[in-house]
Write a structure and sequence with these properties.
The chain has 236 residues and is α/β, with parallel strands linked by helices. It is 37% helix and 13% strand. It has 8 helices and 6 strands, in the order ααββααβαβαββαα. β5 and β6 form a beta hairpin. It is globular, with a radius of gyration of 16 Å.
Length: 236
């Protein structure tokens, strides 16, 4: 049975340590400077809001069978709200899709106190700070990698990973040690073995405005890969 969506104050000890290590990290000078600059300057439409302005931890069900893995927090999305894929158009697409699949209790993601819960799903990112131009450097990617490694070690029931974009795909492939490296594509699927269990990676175009506004990614396409990943995870 899927577990409940746990808030930081209710996390088990190992999860709480990971949460605390993520949100207090200052390892990458460029990312620290950028995330805090954005939080101080703000977007005009959010000028009355307090920005999170820190690294963003994962969110969801600690007994998840499906991991949704993206690139990094958006500058005025999760860097503002403090919850991954929350407060921007990519998150709107993601949580609407999870809601249609019966994996989220509501289709909206406004802020981290809006009551959103997911069942059997953990949502995360390969890099935890908002990067300039949404492009972390290879060094920043590698420095942040330890958090995903620790997260996956705790998510020992995960049986499928829905990779949003090539960056998330590459991060998952690296963590699972898949060789040769499989090519990313929308709907691409590869099965790996992790701790004697099969884990299925499913690729999806990222639900960014660049993809959704141009029709490169449609809701029908997105629903199909969510359904495929959920079925591989045993949630369908």
């Amino acid at each position: 049975m899927p577990g409940e969506t746990l808030r930081p104050h209710a996390l088990p000890p190992a999860w709480q340590r990971l949460h605390d290590d993520i949100v207090t990290c200052r390892a990458c000078e460029r990312l620290v400077e950028w995330r805090e600059h954005v939080a101080a300057e703000k977007r005009a439409s959010y000028r009355d809001q307090d920005y999170w302005g820190r690294p963003v931890p994962g969110f969801g069900d600690v007994r998840a069978r499906l991991l949704v893995l993206g690139l990094a927090p958006a500058a005025h999305g999760a860097n503002r709200t403090g919850r991954i894929f929350t407060g921007d158009r990519s998150g709107d697409w993601l949580y609407r899709g999870l809601h249609r699949a019966g994996l989220a209790n509501q289709p909206v993601s406004v802020d981290r106190h809006d009551g959103l819960e997911v069942a059997g799903v953990w949502v995360s990112a390969a890099v935890r700070c908002a990067p300039p131009d949404n492009k972390p450097t290879p060094q920043e990617r590698d420095t942040c990698r330890t958090f995903l490694t620790r997260e996956l070690a705790l998510l020992d029931e995960v049986r499928a990973i829905l990779c949003l974009g090539a960056f998330g795909w590459a991060a998952a492939v690296h963590e699972l040690g898949i060789r040769p490296v499989p090519r990313f594509g929308h709907g691409a699927t590869v099965v790996a073995t992790r701790a004697a269990h099969e884990v299925t990676l499913v690729g999806s175009f990222h639900p960014s405005q660049q993809n959704t506004f141009t029709g490169r990614l449609t809701e029908v396409m997105f629903d199909e890969v969510i359904a495929r990943a959920a079925a591989a995870a045993g949630l369908g």
